[in-house]
Amino acid sequence: MNRELLFHFFECYFHQDWRDDYSSSFEALRDFCCLEPERKAELRESFNDLLEQDALSENFINEFGGSFKTEREGLTANEWLKKAISDLK
Predict the structure, then answer these.
(1) Which are the contacts of 80, defined by CB distance < 8 A and separation ≥ 6?
(2) First to last CA, the chain
(3) What DSSP string describes 38-52?
(4) In whole angstroms, what is the distance from residue 23 CA to residue 46 CA?
């Protein structure tokens, strides 16, 4: 897992005012894919690593410096990661 990339992703795309820039978390993810396409595969791998953790915190995004809770979009942390991984293919 590339912790540096996870911090970069969540701090840059899910900063305190990220909702001013994006209508959903997946719109932010699509922006990352457009702006940093060379890092998509590495982010997908890091998300897979997170998903494999036995007890993934529901606040994992906050733990990586982001300001977003997946429950606000009706998803658990695991559900959000699975959808994000799918979107990164």
Answers:
(1) 25, 70, 73
(2) 17
(3) GGHHHHHHHHHHHHT
(4) 24
Six-digit token pair at 5? 């990339």
- Give residue-wise pLDDT tens across range 18-73: 999 999 999 999 999 999 999 999 999 999 999 998 788 999 999 999 999 999 99
Q: Give the residue from 12, 41, 77, 40 showing the smallest Cα distance to 22.
A: 12
Sorted by sequence, the CB contacts under 8 Å of residue 75 that are 6+ apart come out as 83
- Alpha-carbon span 35 to 27, nearest angstrom: 12
